[in-house]
């Protein structure tokens, strides 16, 4: 029986899908990662925006075009948010964010011709971290999920209502997965819904976890962080790690203090800038990227300009720009939405700034250590420790190798580089 697993949304969803794939392969099923003709489709959905939820529904039609008789199982945030939208499409199973690790057993039930009359929502949202099969790893960079859920309740975000409260994975379980990684994996990325909130016995445990993982000899990277964790002691200790990659994705969302308050973010622009300065004190060429939401209901033209100028002053190495999307059920949904034309205009202005900031950051780097991940056309492509996407020409296959390279010039969203030597 052929099974196709499709993933929408974040890296946490991707990790969970890869864990499902790993389980199914151990059960001797033929499994594909992505949309292919199959007997069973497993769709891991996303609901971070209305558009993401729409795409989750549209995937069902694509599956039926490939095989009208296929069985379709749906899980994830979009179905947690509104299971009826998928049940109306006649799929065979609808689950939410909980018990995704049970999905392989549902596939076995399908094969045996048993009915899937399983109320996946009966138990509610998980209160503890749900352990499952380790994710199948196929690339030189491995994601390891260490945390789930979120307690922040930002006024624009629906995820805490869908994923539940923050819960952390057991340290020993994380270490076991990391130690079991294939030899071709050269980098570990710690991921979660809110990695900052990873705790051990009720106290912040991220630094201690990184210190334990450092001895494995693989590059270490964090998927994202909240400014609230970044202080002198934390960053100083990170700088002492041998394998830590100096890249920080710090979620800003707005450079206006007034807008941050209405977003229910727990810091001011000044506090955010202080954290950035601490990072640059210990990591001279750290990559620092951020998320920015434009067109939040309380963002006037003046407050957008304030945010724009703050972002320009900080000098990020890259921006992830999102136009505000109203999500029913959140506090911000009660506010009057701004015209889409205003959002588009502000996003365009920030996109232009993003190009300038990225090229400026790239020009500040000369020699970089690059983990080569794949070949794209004439180039071998990989990321430097500080997360510059490098395009390298080579007569030899260098996929999976770490090379020392010199930045030649900006290229596409990254840089063209040339090998100085293999490390």
Quick structural overview:
The chain has 423 residues and is an alpha/beta fold. 33% of the residues lie in helices and 24% in strands.
What proportion strand? 15-25%
Q: Number of helical runs?
A: 13
Please give the alpha-carbon distance between the first and last residues. 43 Å
- Please, what is the average pLDDT? 95
* CATH-derived architecture of the largest domain: Alpha-Beta Horseshoe
Number of domains: 3
Q: Helix- and strand-based class?
A: alpha/beta
Fourth-tier CATH superfamily name of the largest domain: tm_1862 like domain
The total beta strand count reads 20
Indicate the percent of residues in helices: 25-40%
**CATH classification, class level of the largest domain:** Alpha Beta
Please state how the strands of the largest beta sheet are arranged side by side.
Answer: 2-1-3-4-5
Gyration radius (Cα, Å) is 22 Å
- Runs in which pLDDT lies below 50 for 5 or more consecutive residues are none
CATH topology of the largest domain: pyruvate-formate lyase- activating enzyme
Describe the largest sheet. 5 strands, parallel
Cα shape: globular
């Amino acid at each position: 029986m052929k099974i196709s697993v499709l993933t929408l949304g974040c890296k946490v969803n991707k990790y969970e899908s890869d864990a499902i794939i790993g389980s199914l392969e151990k059960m001797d099923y033929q499994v594909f990662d992505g949309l292919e003709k199959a007997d069973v489709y497993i769709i891991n959905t996303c609901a971070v925006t209305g558009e993401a939820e729409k795409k989750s529904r549209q995937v069902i039609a694509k599956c039926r075009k490939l095989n009208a008789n296929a069985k379709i199982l749906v899980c994830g945030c979009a179905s947690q948010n509104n299971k009826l939208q998928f049940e109306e499409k006649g799929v065979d199973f609808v689950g939410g964010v909980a018990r995704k690790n049970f999905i392989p057993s549902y596939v076995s039930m399908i094969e045996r011709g048993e009915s899937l009359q399983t109320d996946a929502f009966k138990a509610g949202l998980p209160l503890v971290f749900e352990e499952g099969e380790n994710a199948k790893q196929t690339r030189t960079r491995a994601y390891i999920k260490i945390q789930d859920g979120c307690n922040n309740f930002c006024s624009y975000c629906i995820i805490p209502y869908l994923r539940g409260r923050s819960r952390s994975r057991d340290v020993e379980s994380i270490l076991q997965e990391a130690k079991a990684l294939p030899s071709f994996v050269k980098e570990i990325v710690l991921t979660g819904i809110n990695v900052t909130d990873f705790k051990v016995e009720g106290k912040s445990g991220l630094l201690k976890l990184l210190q334990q993982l450092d001895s494995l000899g693989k590059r270490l990277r964090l998927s994202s962080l909240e400014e609230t964790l970044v202080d002198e002691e934390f960053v100083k200790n990170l700088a002492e790690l041998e394998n830590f990659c100096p890249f920080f994705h710090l979620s800003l969302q707005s450079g206006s203090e007034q807008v941050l308050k209405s977003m229910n973010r727990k810091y001011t622009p000044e506090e955010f800038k202080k954290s950035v300065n601490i990072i640059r004190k210990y990591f001279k060429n750290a990559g620092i990227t951020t998320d920015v939401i434009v067109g939040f209901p309380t963002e006037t033209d003046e407050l957008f300009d304030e945010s724009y100028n703050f972002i320009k002053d900080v000098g990020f190495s890259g921006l992830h720009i999102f136009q505000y999307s109203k999500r029913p059920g959140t506090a911000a949904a009660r506010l009057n939405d701004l015209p889409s034309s205003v959002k588009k205009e502000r996003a365009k202005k920030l996109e232009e700034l993003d190009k300038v900031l990225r090229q400026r950051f790239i020009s500040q780097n000369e020699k970089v250590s690059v983990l080569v991940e794949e070949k794209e056309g004439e180039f071998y492509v990989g990321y430097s420790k500080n997360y510059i996407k490098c395009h390298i020409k080579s007569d030899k296959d260098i996929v999976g190798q770490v090379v020392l390279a010199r930045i030649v010039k900006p290229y596409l969203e990254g840089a063209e580089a040339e090998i100085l030597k293999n490390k």
